TrEMBL record, chain B:
Protein's UniProt name: Periplasmic nitrate reductase, electron transfer subunit
PANTHER family the UniProt entry points to: PERIPLASMIC NITRATE REDUCTASE, ELECTRON TRANSFER SUBUNIT
Subcellular location: Periplasm
Oligomer and partners: Component of the periplasmic nitrate reductase NapAB complex composed of NapA and NapB.
Organism of derivation: Halocynthiibacter halioticoli
Length: 215, 158
């Protein structure tokens, strides 16, 4: 093994015998452009609505739910496609997300959610993954389009303006905290564990409940 | 005898013709004057009232009207979008009116810990309003006006 590495290293170190310096540099540059461009093009292909709905898991479940919402059709005709919300726009984060998505390829191959029933079974976990991601990155994908700086709350309803003033502008909450289920149907929220923290029984209540059960 | 039967037939004919004319007229009214073989131009969809102002209830038992848009609000076995703001535990944050205590009562008037299933589907009773004229004239009279009227009558009698 070590000898193999040494041999490769020696080959790499040795000056080229047959090819000119010009060929190697220009050829390297051209091939670099082709590979890099090809890589990015392939990456962008996987970043389209068409690619996402080419699998029936997406087309028959989440895509159908997106259709009647404002992010699909609206008065101004701007559409947020799947990757606009589900893939970070920034390159480094995008690559990180694409690497995570390799697990989704695994799921596709082995049919983790290949029926409606299986999808519904997993839907809570899937939704929670997305909520956690958006909470962790301060709803970055929402903010790619919706910025608090350009939000004119005088154009909003009183209710919306008050809520945004109290929670969004103060940074107390992020978009996803209130706007869950904006583009897809919500999973069983009773199981989502989203009720306020005080709903978890404290030690006192727990011990009381235990004694009450004994009696 | 012959004359009588003729009269009956004639009168039946007249009734049928008048009845037909009336029926045709009412059909025409419903279709707003568009011929039967044509499609009427659908009216513009009116905007939903969204001023967040509580409306007066026409009678004490009336379920309050929803003074805001509820487009796309999910109310099903999984989630209830209305309760995100109007539930007991949420009104601190939302400052929305809490669902009344009657929503916690089962049919035996026992209070439950949370919303009773029979009161879960908000839009069965609570409805938003549209910014449009009513299609049919409404002659509803508020009970206060009825009482005032009755009091006036009694005064007149004296």
């Amino acid at each position: 093994m070590l000898s193999f590495i040494k041999r490769v290293w020696a080959t790499i170190r040795r000056p080229s015998v047959h090819y000119s310096l010009g060929f190697l540099t220009i050829g390297g540059f051209v091939m670099g452009v082709i590979f890099w461009g090809g890589f990015n093009t392939a990456l962008e292909v996987t970043n389209t609505e068409k690619f996402c709905v080419s699998c029936h898991e997406m087309r028959d479940n989440v895509f159908q739910e997106l259709k009647p919402t404002i992010h699909y059709t609206n008065r101004s005709g701007v559409r947020a496609t799947c990757p606009d919300c589900h893939v970070p726009h920034d390159w480094t984060n995008k690559i990180a997300r694409k690497m995570q998505a390799s697990k989704e390829v695994w799921g596709k191959i082995f049919g983790t959610i290949n029926t409606r029933e299986k999808f519904l079974e997993h839907r809570l976990k899937l939704a929670q993954n997305e909520w956690a991601r958006l909470e962790a990155n301060n709803s970055l994908e929402c903010r790619n389009c919706h910025s608090p700086d350009s939000m004119d709350i005088t154009r909003q309803s009183k209710r919306a303006a008050e809520a945004h003033e109290r929670f969004l502008f103060t940074g107390e909450k992020t978009c996803i905290n209130c706007h869950k289920g904006i583009a897809h149907e919500l999973p069983d929220m009773g199981q989502a564990g989203l009720t306020l923290p005080h709903s978890k029984p404290s030690g006192e209540i727990e011990s009381y409940l235990k004694t009450a059960q004994k009696n | 005898m012959k004359l009588l039967s003729k009269t009956i037939v004639a009168s039946a004919l007249v009734v049928a013709m008048i009845g037909g004319a009336v029926a045709q007229e009412s059909v025409a009214t419903l279709r707003s004057g568009v011929a039967l073989d044509e499609n009427a131009k659908p009216p513009q969809i009116p905007a939903m009232t969204n001023n967040d102002l509580r409306q007066v209830r026409n009678y004490p038992e009336q379920p309050p009207l929803i003074p805001h848009k509820i487009e796309g609000y999910q109310i099903d076995i999984n989630a209830n979008k209305c309760l995100q703001c109007h539930s007991r535990s949420a009104i601190g944050e939302s400052q929305a009116p809490m669902i009344s205590i009657t929503h916690f009562m089962n049919r035996d008037n026992q209070f439950l810990a949370s919303v009773t299933p029979r009161r879960y589907f908000c839009t069965q009773c609570h409805v938003p309003q549209l910014e449009t004229d009513p299609l049919v004239e409404n002659t509803f009279v508020d009970v206060d006006q009825v009482l005032e009227y009755v009091a006036g009558q009694q005064k007149e009698e004296k």
